[in-house]
Amino acid sequence: MIQNTYLLSIVIATVFGWASWGVVISKLSPFTSPKLALGLFYSSLFVALTGTFTLLFYYLRAWFNKGEVNNAHLNISLRQGVLLSSMICIAIGFQRLKVLTWWDGLLLLAIVLLIEFYFMARD
């Protein structure tokens, strides 16, 4: 029951994240208020991507484990969703600053993988 409540909360947050990201894209101009527009852009994108990746990873775990999932799987999926969303938002920020190169992307990926391996080793 608690797991379904968490999943419902994540689904609602994801829908609101994508809706707010769409509003930011369509209604706010980064030229008129750059700090507000960019802050809302990155924060709404982060929430939307985190929720999407969390649900995707959770249901992939459920599919591979033949329906047997628990709260630990949801926690792991949430952690992985946050890490992947952070990597994507940082890469977009680097691209906005025109400093993103392919080796920076690989370094971001390596950092995320090392963090995930650290948490996997602790469990």
Write a structural description.
By secondary structure, the protein is mainly alpha-helical. It has one domain (2-122). It has 4 helices and no strands. It has helices at 2-27, 34-64, 71-96, 102-122. Helix 1 packs antiparallel against helix 2 (34-64), helix 2 (34-64) runs antiparallel to helix 3 (71-96) and helix 3 runs antiparallel to helix 4. It is flat. 16% of the residues are buried. The model has no long low-confidence stretch (mean pLDDT 92).
List its salient traits:
single chain; 123 residues; mainly alpha; 4 helices; 0% strand; flat
Give the tally of β-strands: 0
Low-confidence stretches: none
- Mean pLDDT across residues: 92
Ends apart, CA distance between termini: 24 Å
Order of helices and strands: HHHH
| Overall tally of domains | 1
Rg over CA atoms: 16 Å
Q: Give the CA-based shape.
A: flat
Structural class: mainly alpha
DSSP helix fraction: over 70%
Number of helices: 4
- What is the makeup of the main sheet? none
Provide a concise account of the structure shown.
This protein has 123 residues and is an all-alpha fold.
What's the structural blueprint in terms of helices and strands?
Elements (H helix, E strand, L loop, with lengths): L1 H26 L6 H31 L6 H26 L5 H21 L1
Helix pairs in contact: 1-2, 2-3, 3-4
